[in-house]
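Per reviewer request, we include the raw input and output of the structure prediction for the construct analysed in the revised manuscript.
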Amino acid sequence: MLTWSLEPYELPLRFTWKISRNASDAKTNLIVSVRDSAGGPVGWGEAAPNVRYGEVPAELALKFNKLIVNGLNKIKSLTELDEFLNANAPAHALRFAIESAYVHREALRTGRSVAQVLGLSAPAAAVPTAFTLPIMEPGAVAAFVREQRMERFKLLKIKVNQESGFDLLRELNRLLPGRPLIIDGNEAWHDADSLLRFLEQAATLPALSVRALEQPLPAACADHYRYLRSRVPYPLFADESVTDAADFGDIAQQFHGVNMKLMKAGGYLNGVRLLRQTQSHGLQTMLGCMVETTLGIWSALQVSSLAQICDLDGMLVVRDEPFGLVTEADGLLRPQTEVPALALLTEPR
């Protein structure tokens, strides 16, 4: 019999995290643990609820309790867990926390790495990540770039909206000219023509280098994306258009790449499946994250061998990150342990 627990973590942020649809100064994530009632290793997982997908921490906690009632504590294998979660359909972030906790326990119990449990190549010892400039007043960009030492990252992401996106892009390009950028609209534009006008403005900026244009229009605008795919000057990446499932034949007609996040994929198993489907359709792969502790980022690193771009700076947004399972230096992420173990974590608060 398994013993499961879930506790909320209140995470104050180092700066206001503003994207096109909301802004916050703190996040509430959920930490899940699982152990055998008779003892043995403990597995830990993290859920980072996202309002875009209707995920609210309190509601996820209620769903977790219902899963216990429905038999989560009787699961005896990863295959059985997958079938149980398919039948009970928890929110994606909660599903990932539960599945990853189980996988981490299984790795500890069998003396394998998480990558081995998942049938993947081991992640690199150091993985480069992008770092994100959130939406802010253009006049605040210079101080933010200086305070966050953004020059140490070889790839940057900039959050934009219709109102100030060009001004932010112009300011960041002035401060770090030629630095490759991911321009992330988080569905801020509503039609192809208005986006193309923004891109025409962007093309006037000297030395602008754009690695990817990420989800500028809502996921529902599939026809607009099909129109844009051959007309935008930069690789067009899906984010919100690919959650836990997608018609990849159609996605390949809309985008050049996909940003897979384990929190919206709903687990390691499905996340790996999505990355492999992305590859099989000739699309570029990006591995992203929500605002997460190093537990969530450590988890994402385990599947990083399948990604061409890693955007895993969520832990760098958290003030006083509590676990220290991943460190960052010179824009490189380094996991500090093979599998997150109980001794490496403080008790949830």
